[in-house]
Amino acid sequence: MRNKLHHLLCALVVCVAAAPAYALLPIQHWQTQSGARVYFVENRDLPMLDVSVDFPAGSAFDTRAKSGVAALTAGLLKLGARGLSEDEIARRLADVGAQLGGRFDNDRAGMSLRTLTSAGELQQALDVFARILQRPEFPAAVLEREKTRTIGAIKEADTKPQTMLGRNFNALIYGDHPYGLRGSGEADTVGGITRDDLVDFYRRHYSADQAVVAIIGDLRRGEAETLADRLTADLPRSNESAVIPAVPPLARAEIRAVAHPASQSHLLVGMPGIKRDDPDYFPLFVGNYILGGGGFVSRLTEEVRQKRGLAYSVYSYFSPLKERGPFAIGLQTRKDQAGEALAVVRATLEEFLAQGPTADELKQAKQNLVGGFPLRIDSNRKILGYLGVIGFYRLPLTYLDDFVPNVEKVTLADIRNAFARRVDPERMVTVIVGVDEAALGSAK
Questions:
Q1: What's the number of domains the chain is made of?
Q2: Which of 214, 211, 216, 219 shows the shortest CA–CA distance to 25?
């Protein structure tokens, strides 16, 4: 299947202008009787099925006092369900060669299943998966064990510079917004979480009307409809709408230096970026590839690493979410070079904002992004991930078919205008962990 998809996608890259109406991956979409939205791609090449069910149940739906409830709810789904212990769940899935996965971030929480589609294996795997989704038990003893494990992991992570960097960065760009909450929760909040908290969170956020089911594999449409109904019919019903508040703009630039005995300084510079459905997504995506998302061919790598040897790796990214996810530039450098490295990053960004990329940079970026597109969807698992994104964020069903044309049509003016609208150096925060204050010099 991988070779087949690769050849088909390469053909699409070459012929996209000549055949704009051709649907490479025809996505079928419908709603179950319970209200769940389903996204399905039929692929009969292998006797395999991949299915995921996502909910608006990420860490942004925690409260500050109960931070960690969302993560524990997601984590305990598979640790006891409708009469099956966690060991029995693992054994039944292993007996039929099925694999269970999970997803958890600011916006989403969900589970995925990979299984053979032969009758016996499929039915046993789906029975376990349906129990996990619809009848989790949240055993009290398992909860206490997971709380202890989570608290230990949090305390250990809090000693590491990368964790300190991320926490301080999120705190500065999001303040009291839910995106500023740590996904795992805090040691003091996790300790106070009860089983009732998990049950209540599950009932409010894992509802059928908010579920997004993604399916790809060896099924016909009717079989996929039956499967989606089976996985969602007994989910809770909720009258709540899953709303994340808008992210407010930053009022001003701010810099925070955090002491740490690490041998290097860790830096992040950034601000709230864009939402997942932002019309500037593709100009920013292509532009960021040129700025810092393209590895060794990016501007930041050229200026910071190649010309000055200030860092082994430097990068930038937009992480779009339901509301404005972060835009960030990151690197590690010697402590005595932190100020110089920060000054080069700022100068490179300001020049990019003022002048934009060159025509040659844009041409090479498009070639690399278009040429690499087949690798983004060369397996069922990757396609399943895209189906989940398309469904959860309500993107067009033609999103994958339109990806290459959307990259190709980005112009130099599009990039300059999009960055001017979305990136403001006068309102960006800077966090440096493990810094020699003297090394910052005039950069602070």
A1: 2
A2: 216
- Rounded distance between C-alpha atoms, residue 286 and residue 193, angstroms: 43
Amino acid making up residue 220 = R
Residue 205: domain span:
25-232
Contacting residues for 90 by C-beta, under 8 A, at least 6 apart: none
| Residues 223 and 142 reside in one and the same domain | yes
**CA–CA gap between residue 302 and residue 315 (Å, rounded):** 11
Give the CATH number of the domain where residue 427 resides.
3.30.830.10
How far apart are alpha carbons 50 and 276 in whole angstroms?
24
Question: Are 320 and 275 a contacting pair, CB within 8 Å?
Answer: yes
**Ordered alpha helix ranges (H), 20-118:** 69-76, 86-95
Kindly report the CA angle at 39 between 118 and 229, in degrees rounded to 5? 60
Query: What is residue 444's predicted lDDT score, i.e. its pLDDT?
Result: 60
| Same domain, yes or no: 179 and 325 | no
Where does the pLDDT of residue 238 fall: very low under 50, low under 70, confident under 90, or very high at 90 and above?
Answer: confident
Say yes or no: 170 and 299 in one domain. Answer: no
Same domain, 153 and 298: no
Range 389-425 burial, b when 16+ CB lie within 10 A, else e: bbbbbebebebbbbbbeebeebebebbbebbeebbee
pLDDT digits 0-9 by tens, 124-152 = 999 999 999 999 999 999 999 999 999 99
> Is residue 384 in some structural domain?
yes
